[in-house]
Amino acid sequence: MATRTDPLTLEVVELIGAVVARYHEEYDRAAAEQALTGAQARVLGLLSLEAMPMRQIARRLKCEPSNVTGIVDRLALRGLVERQADPGDRRIKVAALTAEGREVARVLRDSLDFAREPLAGFSREEREVLRGMLRRMAGE
């Protein structure tokens, strides 16, 4: 069983940190090219999957709902996001991408080559194994 200080565990932790740092650098660079902050770009990325309430966005980004409200407000001012009634509960408002927001999210996604290029060299089975391990690490 691995311990928290065995050399292999320490190396894996360092490698994860390097991957995360490079991902954030590339994500922030891609966001800046669209005149967005990294947080705004991450919200657009989440909303490109589905419209969701602010609380759900906050949980996914691991931040306070009030921070998400400010981010969504700024994205709405740019015409990238709009608030809509939740079809399942009209009392709840969800943030959803506009057509322009979907296009900006696509441009952002297409510009993130760092993770996509190395993963392209992995077989489908290797990507599924990696996904499973990452989900376990994330507690999903």
Automatic annotation (TrEMBL):
GO MF annotation, one: DNA binding
Residue stretches making up the HTH marR-type domain: 9-139
Gene3D superfamilies: Winged helix-like DNA-binding domain superfamily/Winged helix DNA-binding domain
Domain of life of the source: Bacteria
PROSITE patterns linked to this entry: HTH_MARR_1, HTH_MARR_2
Any one Gene Ontology BP term: response to stress
Stated name of the protein: MarR family transcriptional regulator
Source species of the chain: Streptomyces albidoflavus
